[in-house]
Design a protein that fits this description.
- This protein is of the alpha/beta class.
- It has a domain of 201 residues: Alpha-Beta Complex (Spore Coat Polysaccharide Biosynthesis Protein SpsA, Chain A), CATH 3.90.550.10.
- The chain is 51% helix and 10% strand.
- The chain has 18 helices and 7 strands.
- Strands 3-2-1-4-6-5-7 form a 7-stranded mixed beta sheet, sandwiched between helices.
- Strand 2, helix 3 and strand 3 form a beta-alpha-beta unit.
- Helix 6 crosses helix 15.
- The longest helix has 30 residues.
- The chain is globular.
C-alpha cells in the first residue's frame, strides 16, 4: 500500500471518529433530556424566585457596531431587575461613530436614574478579553452577565438566571441558548441557524447533563465574578477567550450550568464573508485553547471518558483540514487506482451523526421543525465549503501565528426587507473565494476521473465537495456582483422597545 493510501485511510478514520462522536452526543442527549424535549429534568428545575436580589453587572463589549449598539443598550436597560442592584457597562473599543451613539444612549439613561457607564479604550489590547477584563476590575456586581452587540435579551433574563446560583457556591457560570432574530432572512442564515441549534439544543445540553466539559459561548451567559477572578481572569492569548476561561474554571473545580429553555435572540451574519470571518476566529481560537490546555486536561482527575470528550471538544475544528487533505489525496489515488472502499465506508458511517444531531435539535426545539429542516442541504454545502477557510485558521493556530481579531459585522437585520450590502461594514471579495472556486474545479476533475476509472463509490463523496466549495464561492461572487442586498437602512433612531416574534418552542 502506498504512502498516500495510508495517509488517506488514516485521515478518513479520524474524520469518521469525529462523526461517530456526534452519535455519542446524540445518545447522551436522548438519555438526559426529559420526555417533553427542552424542559429541564426534575433535578434541574428552577429554584424559588429571588427574595433578595444580589448586585449584578451587565457587560456589553462593542467594537464598531453602529447599526445595533442602540438596540442593545435599549434592551438591557429594560431588564426587570432592581435598579439599585444593577450596573451596566458599555465596554467600547470602537473607532467609528459607534462611540458617539453609545455615549448618547448612556447619557440618556443615566439622566433617568440607571447606573450605566461607557468605558472606552483607545487601544484594543487583548481584544474582547482585554475589554472584559477592564470592565471586571470595576464591576460592582457579584454576578456578571455578558451580551454581544447583536443580542436582544428578554427583560426577565436576570430574574430567571440569578436564582440558579443560590445555594451553589461552586457554580461559576450559567449559559443560555442563542435564538435567532433573522433566521428566515436567506438560505444562508437558515443554514447557520441549523448549525447553531445543533450546538445549543443538543450538544450543550448533552455535555452539561452528562458531566462533560462545556463552554461559555461568549454571550448570553452569567458568570460569578469570584469564579472569573479565581480562574485567572480574562486572558487575550487566544481568540476564544470564552472557551479558554470556561476550561480554566472547570479545571479549577468550578461547575457550569446550561439552560436551553432560556433563549436570547441574536443576529445571524447575512454575508458569507462575515460568516467565514466568524468561523475563522472560532476555529483558530479553539485550536489555540487545545494547545493551551491539552496537557492539563489529560492530567485532571476526571474519568477517562470525560477527558477524552474534552479533547474532542477542543479539537473539533481539526475536521476541516482533515476534509481538505482527504479531497486533495483522492485525485492522485484515483489516478493510481489506490482508493479503497473501507475508509469511505467508515467515513459514511460516521457521517450519520451530524444529520441526526441537527434533525433532533429541530424536532425538540420547534413546532415547525419540518420547514426548518428543509434547509439542511444548505448546511451540508456550507459545512463542506467552509473547509478551506477553517483549515487556514487551524494552520495559523498550530504555527502560533500572532492574533488579529477581526470582528463579525452586524447590520441590525430584523426582517427580510432590511438590507446590508451598501453598509461600509460589508466585507469585500477576498482571495479565498478564488481558492474555493479552484477546489470546486478540482473536485469536478476528480468526479470525472472516478467515473472514468469505475470508482463509482467515490462519486457522492466528491460531489459533496464540488457542491460545497462551489456554493461558498458562488455566494462570495454574488455579493461582489451586487445581486444580494441593495441599501442598508439608516442608523436606527432611539426607541423604547424592540418587537421580536418568539420562535415556537416544543417545550
Amino acid at each position: 500500500m502506498s504512502v498516500l493510501a495510508i495517509v488517506y485511510g488514516f485521515t478518513a478514520v479520524l474524520l469518521a471518529t469525529y462523526g461517530l462522536n456526534s452519535l455519542i452526543i446524540v445518545l447522551l442527549y436522548l438519555r438526559h433530556r426529559s420526555f417533553d424535549g427542552l424542559r429541564t429534568p426534575r433535578e434541574h428545575q428552577p429554584p424559588p424566585p429571588l427574595t433578595n436580589a444580589p448586585p449584578a453587572t451587565v457587560q456589553l463589549p462593542v467594537y464598531n457596531e453602529l447599526h445595533v449598539v442602540e438596540r442593545l443598550i435599549d434592551a438591557v436597560t429594560r431588564l426587570d431587575y432592581p435598579h439599585d442592584k444593577l450596573q451596566i457597562q458599555v465596554l467600547d473599543d470602537s473607532t467609528d461613530e459607534t462611540t458617539a451613539l453609545a455615549q448618547a444612549r448612556v447619557d440618556y439613561y443615566r439622566k433617568r436614574g440607571i447606573d450605566i457607564v461607557l468605558i472606552h479604550r483607545p487601544e484594543r489590547t487583548g481584544f474582547k478579553a482585554g475589554a472584559l477584563q477592564r470592565g471586571t476590575e470595576t464591576a460592582t456586581g457579584e454576578f456578571i452577565a455578558i451580551f454581544d452587540a447583536d443580542f436582544v435579551p428578554d427583560p426577565d433574563f436576570l430574574r430567571r438566571i440569578i436564582p440558579h446560583f443560590q445555594g451553589r457556591p461552586r457554580l461559576g457560570l450559567v449559559q443560555t441558548r442563542w435564538g435567532h432574530i433573522n433566521a428566515d432572512y436567506s438560505p444562508l442564515t437558515r443554514a447557520q441557524a441549523l448549525a447553531l441549534d445543533g450546538h445549543f439544543v443538543v450538544e450543550q445540553t448533552a455535555r452539561q447533563r452528562s458531566g462533560l466539559f462545556m463552554n461559555f459561548n461568549g454571550s448570553s451567559g452569567v458568570w460569578r465574578k469570584s469564579c472569573i477572578e479565581e480562574a485567572g481572569g480574562w486572558q487575550g492569548d487566544t481568540l476564544s477567550e470564552d472557551l479558554d476561561l470556561s476550561y480554566r474554571a472547570q479545571l479549577g473545580g468550578w461547575q457550569l450550568l446550561y439552560l436551553p429553555e432560556v433563549v436570547s435572540p441574536a443576529e445571524i451574519p447575512p454575508q458569507i464573508n462575515a460568516f467565514k470571518r466568524q468561523q475563522f476566529r472560532w476555529a483558530k481560537g479553539s485550536i489555540q485553547c487545545l494547545l493551551k490546555h491539552w496537557s492539563t486536561l489529560l492530567r485532571t482527575p476526571r474519568p477517562t471518558f470525560v477527558r477524552l470528550q474534552g479533547l474532542i471538544h477542543l479539537s473539533n475544528y481539526l475536521i476541516h483540514p482533515l476534509m481538505l487533505i482527504l479531497l486533495l489525496l483522492t485525485l492522485p489515488l484515483l489516478l493510481g487506482q489506490g482508493v479503497t472502499r473501507l475508509p469511505l465506508l467508515y467515513l459514511g458511517l460516521g457521517s450519520l451523526g451530524p444529520p441526526l444531531l441537527f434533525a433532533l435539535s429541530q424536532w425538540d426545539a420547534y413546532l415547525d421543525w419540518r420547514r426548518r429542516l428543509a434547509y439542511f442541504p444548505f448546511l451540508v454545502l456550507l459545512g463542506t465549503g467552509i473547509a478551506l477557510n477553517n483549515a487556514l485558521a487551524v494552520g495559523e493556530a498550530l504555527t502560533r501565528r500572532p492574533n488579529l481579531f477581526q470582528r463579525t459585522p452586524k447590520f441590525g437585520l430584523e426582517d427580510r426587507a432590511d438590507r446590508w450590502a451598501e453598509s461600509h461594514y460589508a466585507l469585500p471579495l477576498n482571495w479565498m473565494t478564488l481558492g474555493e472556486a479552484l477546489l470546486s474545479l478540482y473536485s469536478l476533475i476528480a468526479v470525472i476521473v472516478a467515473l472514468a476509472t469505475g470508482n463509482y463509490y467515490a462519486v457522492p463523496f466528491l460531489l459533496l465537495y464540488l457542491g460545497g466549495f462551489g456554493y461558498v464561492a458562488a455566494l462570495g461572487l454574488r455579493t461582489r456582483m451586487g445581486r444580494i442586498g441593495g441599501f442598508v437602512p439608516p442608523i436606527r433612531k432611539s426607541r423604547q422597545s424592540v418587537v421580536l416574534t418568539k420562535e415556537p418552542n416544543r417545550g
